[in-house]
Amino acid sequence: MQAKRSADPIITRPGPSRRFCVAPMMDWTDRHYRYFARLVSRHALLYTEMVTSGAVLKGDRERLLGFDVAEHPLALQLGGSNASELAQCATIAEEYGYAEVNLNVGCPSDRVQNNLIGACLMAHPHLVAEAVAAMRDACSLPVTVKHRIGINGRDSYEQLGDFVETVHKAGCETFIVHARIAILEGLSPKENREIPPLRYEVVHQLKRDFPQLEIIINGGLVDIETIRTELELVDGTMVGREAYHNPYLLADVDRLLFGDDAPVLSRLDVLRAMRPYIARHLASGGQMHHVTRHMLGLFQGLPGARHFRRQLSSEIHRRQDPLGLFDELISEMSARLEQRDCPA
Ligand SMILES: Cc1cc2nc3c(=O)[nH]c(=O)nc-3n(C[C@H](O)[C@H](O)[C@H](O)COP(=O)(O)O)c2cc1C
């Protein structure tokens, strides 16, 4: 019978627990989404969008890296392959107070491939190893790698094992594995998240072959029951699209995956708690939809979900007083849910 390692509630590793992570997603997991997600789960480990090393070193650093302490535990995902640049970024990540620094070896986009960033690096394990070693030397944060199970032309299990072993020797202990290959020519990034089949068994095999490593499984996980089953085979889970489109999924994470029975905010309380955050954002010159575009799926599956989504995606642009609309929505959603006697 298979030993149940990771079903134990607490993994005794330094750094944040990765039993449940919300994936890095460009344009989606910005600081507004993360603030919102954190209201629903205290324990989920959140990741930033990928930030390239060049952008960190030459761009508007505060805009790219700034976050609210309430977002913790929070990991920074970097894109790049230049070891010395990535090392500087790792130092900066530590100064900013991130809990982990992660290297993206999974993004299949042409744009990043041309700069030797993302999934194409799976063909260059020694380059990734060099980068990881430099990042580890430059900071005391856990340095983790997020990658695919392969890329076209390099998709055997042996090659995957070689990649993991080489990068592990450079000091990486945690591998976040998107359980499908990336096809580097001919598919868009979106297609590369849908067309190559999911192969969880490859990730399970990796855990069996490298039991000392922390292996986090990613790709296509959409419900807590499956996640619990996966946690019997690997050390942690990462959820992307479902955590974005159906954010209240996170409401079960603390209790069912971390054994924390503290009360969870209802959906309406999440809305109420977002109000002062939105008001601050407006006062600093921002627009309400920057924040609320991430909240459209909050009521998914409940009465009024479509109304909520429509008001926040189109009506919002017609209103002079966006906060007034937000207040009306709180009252409307509250009435709709009470009428149907639904848990808010
Ligand atoms: C809009 C979008 C943007 C993404 N951006 C990134 C990124 O910046 N870095 C990264 O490693 N993966 C990125 N991904 C991939 C996700 O992190 C994740 O690996 C993938 O969506 C599979 O997980 P899921 O099936 O739970 O969504 C992105 C995915 C989406 C949908």
Automatic annotation (TrEMBL):
Keywords (A to Z) from UniProt: Flavoprotein, FMN, NADP, Nucleotide-binding, Oxidoreductase, RNA-binding, tRNA processing, tRNA-binding
Residues of the active site: C107 (proton donor)
Swiss-Prot/TrEMBL site (Interacts with tRNA) positions: N104, K190, R193, R306, R309
InterPro entries: Aldolase_TIM, DUS-like_FMN-bd, DUS_fam, DusA, tRNA_hU_synthase_CS
Chain ranges of the DUS-like FMN-binding domain: 22-316
Residues annotated as binding FMN: P24, M25, M26, Q77, K146, H178, N218, G219, G220, G240, R241
Cofactor(s) listed: FMN
PROSITE patterns registered for this protein in UniProt: UPF0034 (PS01136)
GO molecular function annotation: flavin adenine dinucleotide binding; FMN binding; tRNA binding; tRNA-dihydrouridine20 synthase activity; tRNA-dihydrouridine20a synthase activity
Catalytic activity, EC: 1.3.1.91
Recorded catalytic activity of this chain's protein: 5,6-dihydrouridine(20) in tRNA + NADP(+) = uridine(20) in tRNA + NADPH + H(+); 5,6-dihydrouridine(20) in tRNA + NAD(+) = uridine(20) in tRNA + NADH + H(+); 5,6-dihydrouridine(20a) in tRNA + NADP(+) = uridine(20a) in tRNA + NADPH + H(+); 5,6-dihydrouridine(20a) in tRNA + NAD(+) = uridine(20a) in tRNA + NADH + H(+)
UniProt family annotation: Belongs to the dus family.
Biological role stated in the UniProt entry: Catalyzes the synthesis of 5,6-dihydrouridine (D), a modified base found in the D-loop of most tRNAs, via the reduction of the C5-C6 double bond in target uridines. Specifically modifies U20 and U20a in tRNAs.
Record-linked NCBIfam families: PRK11815.1, yjbN
Identification of the protein by name: tRNA-dihydrouridine(20/20a) synthase
Organism: Halopseudomonas xinjiangensis
Higher taxonomy: Bacteria, Pseudomonadati, Pseudomonadota, Gammaproteobacteria, Pseudomonadales
Gene: dusA
